[in-house]
Specification:
Elements lengths: L5 H9 L7 H8 L19 E8 L5 E6 L9 E6 L5 E7 L3 E7 L6 E8 L7 E6 L7
Parallel strand pairs: 1-7
Antiparallel strand pairs: 1-4, 2-3, 2-5, 5-6
Length: 138
């Protein structure tokens, strides 16, 4: 961030006044496309976590929104778009999360809810759901 304090500005500039020797430069050069291995950490998966894939089976682009618990339409959070028939959106979600799928403009006027989905972990931890226009049934 920018500083208005002259001593702080000088200290910031001095942070770049160092020299690397040949060995250090070579070590940095060898990192290109060959990053150091990550520490041996295993990410603990949340028991309610589900890997979701939504596939667009409706004509044209479909916007995907997450619905917070108790949220109204103005609270919908845009999480992605499936731009064409057959397009897919992959994401990580959790048991009980609700998604709505809309055609047309963003979160408000002009958008039509095509479908909705509630994540059900009992269907497995990796799921694919095809999104069709079921607006007549909602």
């Amino acid at each position: 961030p920018a500083s208005r304090s002259r001593p702080h500005q000088e200290a910031n500039l001095n942070s770049f006044s160092f020299m690397l020797n040949g060995g250090e430069l070579q070590t940095i050069d060898h990192l290109d496309n060959n990053p150091p291995p990550l520490p041996n950490r295993v990410k603990k998966r949340n028991a309610d976590e589900v890997q979701m894939q939504f596939v667009n089976r409706a004509e044209g682009p479909v916007n995907v929104y997450w619905v917070p618990d108790g949220g109204s339409e103005s609270d919908h959070v845009h999480v992605g778009e499936m731009k064409e028939l057959g397009g897919a959106l992959k994401l990580t979600s959790y048991q009980g999360h609700t998604f709505v799928f809309k055609k047309g403009g963003g979160g408000g006027g002009g958008s039509k809810v095509l479908n909705q989905h509630v994540v059900d972990k009992s269907l497995g931890s990796d799921q694919t759901h095809e999104i069709e226009d079921e607006s007549g049934e909602l």
